[in-house]
Design a protein that fits this description.
Bound molecules: cytidine-5'-triphosphate
Number of domains: 1
Order of helices and strands: EEEHEEHEEEEHEEEEEH
Distance between the termini: 14 Å
Strand order of the largest sheet: 5-4-1-6-9-10-12-13
Radius of gyration: 18 Å
CATH class: Alpha Beta
Number of strands: 14
Number of helices: 4
């Protein structure tokens, strides 16, 4: 990876990539989840590795066969698991790619004991919000954070800008809802200074592997600048 600083760091950039959904338990066999496949995050992990970065993956409950041969991976189930992993591990990395699709709600008091029977009175599940993770992470001045946003097309950029400010990340990779669980993406990168980068034409879908390589390349100068004195 290129570096714009004159003092050359003596080690590769360390990336931490979170991906996949979270599963919020109901009882010991059921959960609330979402349709994230983890594919975009994993393609970014692969693309970063191609640039000689060290890449650790934190993966939610998704099944990407290729990930079985990734040698630096830890698994999480719930948002609480992911928060704990990040609090422990983020201090040891330079770049965080927060592609995980964190659930918005969890069941109060879960997991309920055992397995709720079908012939029991249907449970009234009381939900509570899952607390923000990336927006509350402590980062150093030389760490770079990439947030994600999954939004309806008509609100994509406005919503991505709101999240960029609220979560205090360095940039947001904004995807339309159609990218969920798909092999293709129309991702755009939204920066704090108002710039929006697109790989091809706006609303054009491309293979996630090619979009991921473009994202890693597009982030590279900003990462080199911010993480240069790592
Ligand atoms: N995120 C997070 N903690 C949460 C929810 C989301 O760190 N509790 C992160 C995601 O990993 C992603 C970014 O915040 O990088 C945006 O996630 P998204 O689901 O698009 O937005 P939300 O903040 O959940 O807001 P909403 O569901 O209202 O769109």
């Amino acid at each position: 990876m290129s570096n714009t600083n004159t003092s050359k760091p003596d080690r590769p950039t360390r990336w931490l990539v979170t991906l996949g959904p979270t599963h919020e338990p109901i009882d010991q066999v059921r959960f609330i989840g979402n349709r994230s496949s983890g594919r975009m995050g994993f393609e970014i992990a692969k693309a970063a590795k191609e640039t000689n970065a060290q890449v650790r993956v934190l993966a939610g409950p998704c099944s990407l066969p290729e990930m079985n041969s990734w040698n630096d991976v830890a698994r999480f189930q719930s948002a609480a698991d992911l928060r704990k992993l990040l609090n422990n591990e983020w201090p040891n990395f330079d770049v965080l790619v927060m592609a995980a699709a964190v659930a918005d709600w969890r069941v109060v008091g879960a997991p309920l004991e055992g397995k709720i029977r079908r012939d029991a009175t249907p449970p009234m599940l009381q939900l509570e919000p899952v607390a923000e993770i990336v927006g509350h992470l402590q980062s150093r001045h030389n760490q770079f954070v990439v947030g994600f946003a999954l939004e309806p097309k008509d609100d994509l950029l406005a919503s991505a800008r709101r999240k960029l400010a609220a979560k205090k990340v360095d940039c947001i990779v904004a995807n339309s809802l159609e990218t969920l669980d798909s092999t293709h993406s129309d991702a755009q990168i939204v920066w704090g200074d108002g710039r929006v980068l697109t790989q091809g034409h706006v609303n054009e879908f491309a293979e996630k592997s090619s979009v991921a390589r473009w994202i890693v390349q597009a982030l590279s100068p900003a990462i080199a600048q911010k993480c240069g004195d790592r």
